[in-house]
């Protein structure tokens, strides 16, 4: 249903008094979306087809298996997930890596366009954004789904090869949070089968299971009555349906199939509690759950009414909690209360808290008290009106962009329909029902809805504690709940927000557009304003009713001394936390309720920037926000204290965090412990923060709007834009200074770094960081060659390190060519692996690089990469963001993205020799770094 897809709905108009809607009976069915074609084949397989050209000339293909790790027996733990991996290792029509090799030739990328996931209750495979106008390619994709359904090869050799890959996936994911989850799962699921069926499974079983055990799981559960296929994209529905009926007819119906059972989490009459600890946990968390039997969807008005009311109530509660978190004295960093699906047969009321260090008791007390206040006293008129406005606005925006719903959004609705039996609603009909619901809303209705969920049964409290902190205990937690529920002194929430506006009393005196120039090459216009600002504009309606703005000026943090780097770096954060104009950030959020408009500012090492985006009807609000960022920024001393407190909190227990240790060690090794321009966020950094300096640096960076270059792209005409530019941009004084950044590039400690770093860790592993860097000429061809080198190496490492050696879940390669502050190229390789295998795997990393330097590059790898780039470029043209990149690169970087000579022709011309020469030129005499993190035994 749409109410689940819009998420915390963001919309614009409509108040209680102005809603016009018909009345509905509770049993009235929600109209089904007729755009989606749904059918069931004679063998029991379900299919869905949804035509859309949101991504022109492409389609996505999914197979949804109503099968997950919950169906495993004790000898199969991990095999549902193992089977998912095997689907990419040979099928009836695609031997070995045939699926990957075939689709990569169409520009698809493994892990991005070709992927899958396994959970406790489902396994889903996807082929995303595959070219759809070649009938042979469409047939191939359907054949892949067909083979995934019933024709996996499951050869002994491929099974054995995959054992190591999955073991390394487990190792990569086996961090402190995973170990904590293993401690808490029996409490979350009340010792039901869910607690013992994590999809990654048991590594002893993964390493040693007999081949037939996996084949038996496949035979038992991968069958058409538990499968749905979904095809979404630029396709002909009738043609696809005919192909499906013909191709999938040969998949046999199982005789005497095993029953697809579902597990209900047992009830617990008395509350349960668990405190979990791990030496590598650096921050605590608290959860309070109340499990319920899942509410089976009826597809009626009553469902929509109940869920809309709940969503509004929880949204208001979470707004209150978010406001509290913006106070320094608040004991929690964040908190949220929701009601959500939990498992097939259970839903849960859920309260989650991230407390500040040593504030667990206070945080739990405050959040529980706020919950009790909500269900006892309800909500203010202003809170409800803002929630109604937000909901209406969200539907309006959604309906305006029905043709822009992404493939993934459609698939989400399909999965809800197939797995959870939630109707795929007609959005217009659902909106009419929602207006009727909102017309009758009041605090009593909202209170009744949420009070029903706060039951005495099935309560579970879990605490992820930190060693050395005052962790919340069972006795204290239960006492806090009992006292809050019986607190006779509790008072209703007071809504202090009244009648504030964005501009307040600010008087804006418009300027003028003094000239405009057409840039015919890219069909753009440059407006020069009376204050010296240049605004580059291009109409783009790939995303209807959307407008995007950005502006940049050179200078940034580079202009300041090392001592001032903390204050300069954080000044934009302080301004964003403080609100704008006469409004605190809390009030600003309320003023913007129901408006789809935002603006942000940033200060980086080389630039200061302003950005904004809006729905067309709210573009003036966006422009007002941009105006205020320059003329009335806000700096709140309380927010300064909160910012420092948050940074201070992040330091506490940082030594427990393995990733933080690695990052700190890496920085020290590469740049030295006291490099003046590399400032780690430590106590000295926090002590060097100055409220006055932060304010001063912000005002300095944004003092001269004439030094900013603006870019505006979207579905708006010049007639709408020009008056707004004159009023909100040309009205800002410009002092016409000319600034550039300073080139302060931090130096490495050595041009050749080779270090092993030993760290104590609970789950032993090695993490490898290899980097090459060198000053290098910035050209379009070199930039593209860097990408080719990166992606060809990725293909090589996937084959060698992952598939052949089973040594890592995946190696990440990033090659880049930066233009500023100096033209520099680099290659970075990172991966995790078994500590005992790292010395065996490291030479392979360099061997693959040496092969490229020698010209030993598979032509197939180059063609796969080339096809992906050309396809991705065409795909990107389906979105307004392409037009923004087009005008930015044209005016800032001096090249026309639309001109084939600047991209397409280069990509088409890249040869093995080009990549070889680039690799040799870049890597010859390059600075190099190899840092390997190893477990301290």
From TrEMBL:
UniProt cofactor(s): Zn(2+)
Family, according to the entry, reads as follows: Belongs to the peptidase M16 family.
Q: Name one Pfam family in it.
A: Peptidase_M16_C
Q: Where is the Peptidase M16 C-terminal domain?
A: 209-389, 689-868
Can you name this protein?
A: Peptidase M16
Q: Which PANTHER family match?
A: NARDILYSIN, PROTEIN YHJJ
SUPFAM superfamilies attached to this UniProt entry:
LuxS/MPP-like metallohydrolase
Per the UniProt entry, what are the Gene Ontology biological process annotations, in alphabetical order? Answer: proteolysis
Q: Which UniProt keywords apply?
A: Hydrolase, Metal-binding, Metalloprotease, Protease, Signal, Zinc
| One MF annotation (Gene Ontology) recorded for this entry | metal ion binding
Highest taxon of the lineage: Bacteria
Which stretch is the leader sequence? 1-21
Q: Which residues form the Peptidase M16 N-terminal domain?
A: 53-174
InterPro entries per record = Metalloenz_LuxS/M16, Pept_M16_N, Pept_M16_Zn_BS, Peptidase_M16, Peptidase_M16_C
């Amino acid at each position: 249903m749409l109410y689940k897809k819009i998420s915390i709905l963001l919309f614009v108009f409509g108040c209680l008094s102005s809603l016009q809607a018909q009345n509905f009976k509770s049993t009235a069915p929600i109209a089904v979306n007729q755009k989606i074609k749904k059918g069931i084949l004679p063998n029991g397989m379900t299919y869905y087809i949804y035509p859309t050209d949101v991504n022109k000339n492409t389609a996505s293909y999914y197979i949804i298996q109503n099968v997950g790790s919950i169906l495993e027996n004790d000898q199969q733990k991990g095999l549902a997930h193992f089977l998912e991996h095997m689907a990419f290792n040979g099928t009836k029509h695609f031997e070995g890596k045939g699926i990957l090799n075939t689709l990569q030739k169409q520009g698809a990328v493994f892990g991005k366009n070709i992927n899958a996931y396994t959970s406790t209750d489902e396994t889903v495979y996807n082929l995303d954004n595959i070219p759809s106008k070649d009938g042979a390619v469409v047939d191939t994709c359907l054949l892949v789904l067909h083979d995934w359904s019933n024709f996996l090869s499951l050869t002994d050799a491929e099974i054995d090869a995959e054992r190591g890959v999955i073991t390394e996936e487990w190792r990569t994911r086996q961090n402190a949070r995973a170990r904590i989850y293993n401690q808490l799962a029996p409490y979350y699921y009340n010792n039901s089968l869910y607690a013992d069926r994590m999809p990654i499974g048991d590594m002893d079983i993964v390493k040693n299971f007999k081949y037939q055990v996996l084949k038996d799981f496949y035979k038992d559960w991968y069958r058409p009555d538990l499968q749905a296929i979904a095809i979404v994209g630029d396709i002909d529905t009738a043609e696809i349906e005919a192909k499906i009926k013909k191709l999938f007819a040969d998949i046999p119906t199982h005789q005497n199939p095993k029953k697809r059972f579902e597990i209900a989490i047992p009830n617990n009459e008395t509350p349960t509690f668990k405190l979990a600890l791990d030496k590598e946990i650096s921050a605590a968390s608290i959860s309070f759950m109340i499990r319920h039997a899942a509410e089976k969807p009826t597809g009626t008005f009553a469902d929509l009414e109940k869920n809309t009311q709940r969503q509004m109530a929880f949204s208001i509660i979470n707004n209150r909690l978010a406001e509290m978190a913006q106070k320094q004295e608040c004991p929690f960093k964040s908190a949220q209360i929701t009601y959500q699906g939990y498992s097939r047969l259970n839903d849960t009321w859920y309260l989650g808290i991230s407390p500040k260090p040593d504030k667990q008791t206070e945080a739990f007390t405050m959040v529980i008290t706020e919950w009790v206040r909500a269900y006892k006293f309800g909500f203010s008129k202003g809170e409800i009106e803002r929630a109604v406005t937000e909901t209406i606005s969200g539907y309006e925006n959604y309906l305006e962009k029905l043709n822009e719903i992404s493939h993934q959004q459609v698939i989400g609705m399909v999965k809800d329909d197939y797995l959870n039996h939630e109707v795929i609603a007609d959005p217009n009909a659902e909106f009419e029902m929602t207006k009727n619901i909102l017309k009758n809303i009041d605090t009593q209705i909202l209170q009744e809805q949420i009070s029903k969920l706060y039951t005495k049964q099935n309560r579970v409290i879990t605490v992820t504690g930190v060693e050395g902190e005052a962790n919340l205990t069972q006795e204290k937690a239960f006492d806090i709940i009992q006292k809050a529920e019986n607190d006779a002194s509790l008072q209703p929430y007071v809504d202090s927000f009244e009648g504030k506006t964005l501009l307040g009393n600010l008087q804006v005196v418009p300027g003028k557009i003094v000239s405009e120039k057409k840039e015919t090459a890219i069909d753009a216009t440059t407006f020069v304003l009376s204050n010296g600002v240049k605004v580059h504009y291009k109409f783009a309606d790939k995303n209807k009713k959307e407008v995007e703005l950005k502006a940049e000026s050179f200078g940034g943090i580079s202009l300041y001394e090392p001592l001032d780097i903390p204050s300069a770096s954080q000044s934009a954060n302080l301004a964003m936390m403080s609100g704008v104009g006469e409004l605190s950030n809390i009030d600003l959020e309320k003023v913007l309720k129901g408006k789809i408009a935002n603006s942000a500012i940033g200060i980086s090492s080389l630039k200061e920037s302003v950005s904004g985006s809006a729905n067309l009807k709210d573009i003036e609000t966006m422009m007002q926000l941009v105006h205020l960022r320059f003329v009335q920024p806000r700096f709140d001393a309380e927010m300064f204290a909160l910012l420092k407190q948050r940074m201070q909190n992040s330091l506490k227990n940082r030594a427990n965090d393995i990733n933080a240790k690695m990052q700190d060690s890496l920085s020290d090794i590469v740049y030295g412990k006291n490099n003046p321009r590399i400032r780690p966020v430590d106590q000295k950094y926090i002590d060097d923060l100055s409220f006055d300096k932060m304010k001063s640096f912000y005002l300095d960076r944004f003092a001269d709007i004439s030094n900013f270059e603006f870019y505006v792209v979207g579905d708006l005409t010049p007639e709408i834009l020009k008056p707004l530019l004159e009023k909100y941009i040309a009205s800002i004084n410009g002092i016409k200074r000319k600034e550039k950044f300073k080139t302060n590039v931090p130096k490495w400690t050595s041009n050749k770094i080779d270090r092993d770093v030993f760290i104590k860790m609970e789950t032993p592993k090695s993490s490898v960081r290899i980097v090459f860097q060198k000053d290098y000429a910035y050209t379009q061809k070199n930039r593209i060659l860097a990408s080719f080198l990166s992606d060809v190496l990725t293909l090589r490492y996937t084959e060698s390190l992952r598939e052949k050696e089973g040594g890592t879940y995946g190696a990440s390669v990033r090659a880049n060519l930066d233009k500023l502050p100096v033209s520099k190229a680099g290659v970075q390789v990172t991966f995790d692996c078994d500590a005992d295998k790292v010395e065996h795997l490291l030479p392979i990393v360099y061997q693959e690089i040496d092969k490229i330097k020698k010209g030993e590059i598979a032509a197939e790898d180059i063609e796969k990469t080339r096809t992906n780039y050309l396809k991705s470029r065409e795909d990107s043209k389906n979105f307004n963001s392409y037009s923004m990149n087009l005008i930015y690169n044209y005016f800032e970087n001096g090249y026309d993205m639309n001109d084939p000579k600047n991209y397409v022709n280069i990509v088409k011309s890249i040869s093995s020799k080009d990549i070889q020469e680039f690799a040799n030129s870049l890597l010859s005499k390059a600075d190099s770094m190899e840092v390997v993190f190893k477990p301290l035994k």
